[in-house]
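Sanity check

After download, print the first record. It should look like this:
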Amino acid sequence: MPAAAKTKKWDFWIDRGGTFTDIIGRDPQGHLHPRKLLSENPEAYADAAIQGIRDLLGLKAGAAISAAAIGDVKMGTTVATNALLERKGDRVLLLITKGFRDALRIAYQARPDIFAKEIILPEQLYERVVEIDERVRADGCVERLLDIAACRPAIEQARADGIDAVAIVFMHAWKYPDHEKAVAKVCRKIGFSQISVSHEVSPLIKLVGRGDTTVVDAYLSPILSRYVQRVARELGPGPRLMFMMSSGGLTAADMFQGKDALLSGPAGGVVGMVETAKLAGFEKVIGFDMGGTSTDVAHYDGEYERAFDTEVAGVRIRAPMMRIHTVAAGGGSILHYEAGRFRVGPDSAGANPGPAAYRRGGPLAVTDANVMLGKLQPDFFPAIFGAGQDQPLDIGTVREKFAALAAEIGDGRTPEAVAEGFVTIAVENMANAIKKISVQRGYDVTEYLLN
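Expected structure tokens:
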């Protein structure tokens, strides 16, 4: 008997993506109920996940959610990913051992493009650096005692200037953390709400990797915490709220950290891909997850592939993550015609305004091309658009826009041929992503299931 039937409560599984939020609810009788919403629809609701739960529970607008009615809520979310991509995290103060203020900026002096004459360094997430006069050697000997009094005014000034998150990274603190602990205590007294300390966030050797991860945690944890608290507040004290981590495991809401949230959504897709393949009797799987903003692909051959040193949105992170390859080719990828050529993405229409078919005045996107070609049919797509969230995809607007684009191109191609051209490019981008994780790594794809 399903757990929900035993407890007489609803359970919810939620995937909050960049464009759509998908909710599966299991009622007390064990029946499953799907719900799909735009992730952003500010005129209709504040948060898609909460609105989906409300809809499935049959609650009217403004009605409180009964905590006693809900058992578990398990969620994968792209809140942290989007904040990093759009650089909308919190302002961060970096406290680092004196003499190393530029260590994270210089990093490993890697040159991805060895022939580039102009070296453009990655954008740093921290806003301000304060060097702390302290030094502990690799063997634990204290070379310079921590001078808290000397550094306190600069830290207080940063807080007075509105910086509310601090990342503390000292040399060899992964093994000898006393100085970090002392400075963290001072920061708490000064009033910082987010204090990320390297020996807690990433207790591993190497200053740069540990420092980068700590800064990311300080940058993203506040926005993640605000989102988690908002969801928890709406649900009340009863339900057990858990979030998917980048590593593919679940964690309690109060333990969900920024460094573990970057692949929260896609990681859940990988786990689902593997489990459904096993049910069908397959052990070798290529995972394909085409979303609204991007397409994620993953490889599975008996065990999950994880990476510990990764780069996401130009930021280095050292934390366990599913090995997922992402390309900017999703349903919302905007179609461009410029200088006589077609281009798909990498910019996305997202959920607001979304593709032209979403009835929000958006640009032509991959979704529209599929609507134009009949591959996406409004009759078989959830009617969740328009002011009342009850309208189907707007095929009329799509046809008008493709007709106008075909006229602009002016080479005699029909609107359908133009749409087909864009779809071909998008498919090629996705196929190349699959090749990168399979054929280019020596795997024979003929032995695999595409799931």
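If your output differs, re-run the checksum step. Summary of this record's structure: The first strand starts at residue 10 and ends at 16.
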